[in-house]
From TrEMBL, chain A:
The chain crosses the membrane at residues 21-40, 52-68, 89-113, 133-152. GO terms for cellular component: plasma membrane. It is a multi-pass membrane protein. Keywords: Cell inner membrane, Cell membrane, Membrane, Transmembrane, Transmembrane helix, Transport. Belongs to the TRAP transporter small permease family. Part of the tripartite ATP-independent periplasmic (TRAP) transport system. It is found in: Cell inner membrane. Its main location: membrane. This is TRAP transporter small permease protein. GO terms for molecular function: transmembrane transporter activity. The complex comprises the extracytoplasmic solute receptor protein and the two transmembrane proteins.
UniProtKB/TrEMBL annotation, chain C:
InterPro entries: DctM, TRAP_DctM. This is TRAP transporter large permease protein. It comes from Marinomonas ushuaiensis DSM 15871. GO terms for molecular function: transmembrane transporter activity. Residues 13-430 form the TRAP C4-dicarboxylate transport system permease DctM subunit domain. It comes from the Bacteria. It holds the Pfam family DctM. The complex comprises the extracytoplasmic solute receptor protein and the two transmembrane proteins. Its main location: membrane. Belongs to the TRAP transporter large permease family. It is a multi-pass membrane protein. Part of the tripartite ATP-independent periplasmic (TRAP) transport system. One of its GO terms (cellular component) is plasma membrane.
């Protein structure tokens, strides 16, 4: 079970590498566009479009990545005071909900991307970027990865619950002796 | 509710509150109201501005897939999916409003429009028209083609391509950033709509030279997009009501635009120190050449575009010879 | 058949309960939205979901999020921010609350280049919170200050709220930008006064750097430190703003000047290396994605709210509208404030405003003034617990040990201050209307 978790997290981390690269590309691209336009009046439409095209991988691949690195926002007023086991139960609920949301949105968006592919959708601006369906494909990819991470989280939460339970049984057994 | 009554939804590519594009005489919301009253409440269209149900430019896919029944926008927004869609809104140096209406209603334009949208499960009608637009706002006067070189201009679409052939640096910016960018000189020029809409954006506070005419948008057709299955499920009388309400909106929005633009232009020139003048002739000539190169390249790349292009251009030629003897001498009186 | 009003209440209640027991905010939003929508109108409307998600991840103005966050992470990892705040703290001498003032100023400067609250709150929080904590600031006060200063960008132009309002009230973007300028600064001044007064009556909450420690740094050393530690990062923020004012960059893309500047700064201080860059990219990705996670998962929630006829429910309140201009304005303000507890500002303005505005045009109300009142009210909605988004965004970057409770408590006084500013503007409309007239916008 632990090796499955590790495998999943490796995949999420791998995609995260791509998204990290997009962050760097975004910073350099926007800055370069600004400077080249100001100094040399150069500003191809395609590179301007690429700016906001890069938000998509960062935001969507980033979903699973931020889940993996526990960068999600939660209200911890009660959570912090719960026992490890209770926290495990909340984590389990979260993970199952994550899988459900991820699956639903992935399923909804596959049709959406397919439609864009059939239309061979590109930019309405001449000189803009083609293949907008690739951009749209980050929605199912991102939420699909989220499902994947959700599976890992489910297993982790399950281990958290059972291990604390076993621990409790062991303690109880010891006390019984 | 009787079996004979229909509730449908219309999304819009423009944000809530926009006059002409959303509300006011001849606008999409006005159209919905007209249809409801004409049908005695049998066809009820609930209107949603951009961002309320859908982001601005997602109407085509939503209506095509049947999630939404109707959408209000401009056909050229779909140029990334159907290159020929450009011709059903406006074409640089193309037909003016009278000519466009003539081509659409009686020159085979509408038939082509329906033919092209058919495979997407769509049908479309004209539902409004801004009339001729303006070239745009410039921070400095432009006197020759040389002045265009390196000029940074906010201009989307086909016209952007034409300008870039003449050395203009095309800048894509969302509506809300046009004003701050023009005001600070990040861009030297910006195109939006016409005097009334431009004044609302405050562009005259950022640039004083207002050039005319809208060579790039000599007319501008608002598109009513309807899901084909929904359309066919409507009884004949309701279909006719939709068609007639849309046609009424074309007349009403156009006449409204003509009225408010003349008021706004006078105000801009007399009270705001705006200098309104035509583009110098040599610039117009160069733009025209670049446009026809661009259009013919576009037509050569896609058989569907070629078909529409040829119909449009053949009609334009006929119409131009008539207009040269009718409208033109009259305007020169 | 349950009435839709009850499903809406159930949705809000469901969201609140899931959130309270510790299910992540984004997941709670999506689950409650999907479930309530499914009960109320079935799956059909959710076919719009992909288009709405696509709208979020292709929104040009949201570029400011990764760009500003990168700048913040870079300054934090290269310890530039830490040095800066420490030095400012020392330079402030015995003034309690001194570092807090610096935060408000950074909020004003960053707010002048973007209107994206997530970008500002997260960046300022990242940069300043660890230092403030180490320096003995009360967690609540520190968090409240950061959230409040981060939301200033909503009212200080350029601002998305104002752009949207300009369409709704029919005034030009330029007029509203000019009109919001002074109210934005007034708000900042009110925050600063609050911190200074707090420093006098409760110095323990916002302590100055101890005298003994300040004594270790000589006057000339302090001046040297100011030049070395404070000028460069401040220059960075000024560069962002300067590139807008100087006509180099449009508002959103200007954030890239800050990001690039942060790299150059790290290079010039010999702190840039592969590890630092990797860490900065990792930090930017997780934090930006955290913000986007909430923005994306809010889509099912607001779609469900609309699909369930939340609009009609709000319009129902409309029948309680008292007569007279004054009554109507107060009613509008209270309604916006209440909606602000659980709705996103865009949704509020789309649903509530278009129906009110015809009434006010018939009263002849000054629309510019009204728009700024509305903008300030909407800005407040970012700070109101339990659903203030600024509070969530900050939660995503706080060091361990600070709970959402600290953030909630910290936000409350600032909500009260906002109310004061709102009253001030209400009584003195010229705070908003003077500037646009004076410069002819
Ligand atoms: Na701002
Ligand atoms: Na709120």
């Amino acid at each position: 079970m632990k090796s499955l978790i590790q495998f999943i997290e490796k995949v999420v981390e791998g995609f995260g590498g791509l998204a990290r690269l997009c962050v760097l590309a975004l910073v350099l691209l926007v800055a370069t566009n600004v400077i080249f336009r100001y100094l040399f009046s150069i500003g191809p439409v395609s590179l301007q479009e690429l700016e906001w095209h890069l938000i998509s991988p960062i935001a969507l691949i980033g979903l699973a990545y931020s889940m993996k690195h526990r960068a999600d926002v939660r209200v911890d007023i009660f959570y912090d005071k719960f026992s490890i086991r209770k926290q495990g139960v909340i984590d389990l609920l979260t993970a199952v909900a994550t899988i459900a949301i991820g699956l639903y949105i992935t399923w909804l968006s596959i049709k959406y991307v397919g439609q864009s592919y059939r239309l061979q959708e590109g930019s309405p601006d001449p000189g803009g970027l083609p293949m907008r369906y690739l951009l749209k494909a980050f929605i199912p990819i991102g939420f699909g990865l989220l499902v994947f991470q959700g599976i890992a989280d489910t297993l982790t939460a399950y281990l958290k619950i059972t291990e604390t339970k076993n621990e409790a049984i062991k303690i109880a057994e010891r006390e019984a002796i | 509710q009787s079996k004979d009554s229909f509730n449908v939804r219309m999304t819009n590519a423009y944000p809530p509150g926009s006059p002409f594009y959303v509300q006011g005489p001849g606008s999409p919301m006005d159209f919905c109201k007209k249809v409801e009253e004409m049908s005695g409440g049998r066809l009820n269209i609930q209107h949603f501005a951009a961002g309320e149900l859908l982001p601005a430019l997602e109407g085509f896919n939503a209506v095509s897939s049947g999630t939404i029944e109707m959408n209000a926008a401009n056909a050229y927004f779909w140029a990334g999916k159907i290159p020929a869609a450009q011709f059903f809104t406006t074409v640089p140096f193309g037909l003016n409003t009278q000519g466009m209406n003539a081509w659409l209603y009686h020159g085979g334009g509408m038939e082509l429009w329906h033919e092209i949208y058919e495979p997407h499960g769509l049908i479309a009608f004209p539902m409004g028209n801004t009339g001729v637009q303006m070239t745009g706002w410039f921070r400095k006067p432009v006197e020759s083609v040389a002045d265009l070189k390196g000029l940074k201009m906010r201009i989307p679409g086909l016209a952007g391509k034409v300008y870039s052939e003449l050395g203009v640096t095309v800048r894509l910016l969302p509506g809300g950033e046009i004003f701050p960018a023009l005001e600070r000189g990040v861009i030297d020029a910006a195109e939006f709509v016409g005097p009334y809409q431009d004044r609302r954006l405050g562009l005259h506070k950022a640039a004083k030279y207002y050039y005319t005419t809208g060579w790039h948008e000599p007319t501008n057709v608002t598109e009513l997009l309807i899901n084909k299955d929904v359309w066919e499920s409507l009884p004949k009388d309701l279909q006719m009501i939709v068609k007639m309400a849309a046609q009424a909106s074309v007349t009403e929005s156009l006449s409204w635009s003509e009225a408010v633009n003349s008021e706004a232009l006078t105000d801009l020139v007399q009270n705001e120190g705006v200098i309104a003048q035509p583009l110098p002739q040599d610039i117009v000539t160069s733009l025209k050449e670049a446009t026809f190169d661009t259009l013919s390249t576009m037509a050569a790349a896609d058989p569907q575009t070629k078909k529409v292009y040829e119909s449009f251009m053949a009609f334009k030629e006929k119409h131009a010879s008539w207009a040269a003897l009718s409208e033109k001498p009259f305007l020169n009186l | 058949m349950i009435g839709n009003e009850w499903i809406i209440l159930g949705m809000i209640g469901g969201f609140l309960s899931m959130m309270i027991i510790g299910i992540p905010v984004a997941i709670s939003l999506a689950v409650s939205g999907f479930v309530a929508g499914y009960i109320g109108f079935g799956p059909m409307l959710f076919n719009l979901m992909p288009a709405r998600l696509y709208g979020v991840v292709t929104n040009y103005t949201l570029l400011a999020i990764p760009l500003f966050v990168f700048m913040g992470v870079m300054l934090e990892k290269s310890r530039v921010a830490e040095d800066m705040l420490e030095t400012i703290g020392k330079a402030m001498g015995g003034v309690n609350g001194g570092m807090g003032l610096a935060i408000i100023l950074v909020g004003v400067l960053m707010g002048a280049s973007t209107g994206i609250v997530g970008a500002t709150v997260v960046t300022v929080g990242l940069l300043t919170l660890p230092v403030l904590m180490r320096r003995g600031y009360h967690p609540s006060v520190a968090c409240g200050t950061i959230c409040a200063s981060g939301t200033l960008g909503q009212i200080i132009p350029p601002s998305l709220v104002l752009i949207l309002l300009s369409d709704i009230v029919g005034e030009s973007v330029g007029t509203l930008f000019a009109a919001a300028f002074i109210p934005g600064l007034v708000l900042a001044v009110i925050y600063i006064l609050y911190l200074l007064i707090l420093g006098i009556i409760k110095p323990d909450l916002v302590p100055a750097i101890p005298k003994e420690e300040r004594a270790l740094t000589s006057r000339s050393q302090l001046i040297k430190d100011l030049l070395r530690n404070v000028c460069p990062p401040l220059l960075l923020v000024v560069a962002v703003l300067g590139s807008i004012v100087g006509g180099v960059a449009a508002p959103t893309e200007a954030a890239s000047m800050g990001a690039l500047g942060a790299i150059l700064l790290a290079v010039s201080m010999n702190r840039l290396n592969w590890t630092l860059l990797q860490e900065a990219l990792h930090g930017t990705l997780t934090i930006s994605a955290m913000v986007f996670f909430i923005l994306l998962c809010a889509q099912p929630f607001s779609l469900a709210f609309r699909g369930l006829g939340g609009e009609q429910v709000v319009h129902g309140f409309f029948e309680m509208l008292p007569g007279g201009e004054l009554g109507a304005i107060i009613f509008l303000m209270v309604l916006l404030f209440i909606l602000g507890f659980f709705l996103e500002w865009i949704e509020i303005s789309y649903i509530a405003l278009p129906m009110f505005l015809p009434i006010f045009s018939s009263y002849g109300t000054d629309m510019v003034w009204l728009a700024i009142l509305v903008a300030m009210n909407l800005q407040m909605s970012f700070l109101t617990p339990p659903f203030g988004w600024a509070l969530f965004f900050l939660k995503g970057v706080v060091p361990p040990g600070i709970s959402i409770k600290d953030i909630y408590l910290g936000a409350l006084p600032f909500v009260a201050l906002q109310l004061c500013a709102l009253l001030l503007l209400f009584n003195f409309p010229s705070i908003a209307t003077w500037l646009p007239k004076a410069i002819g916008w």
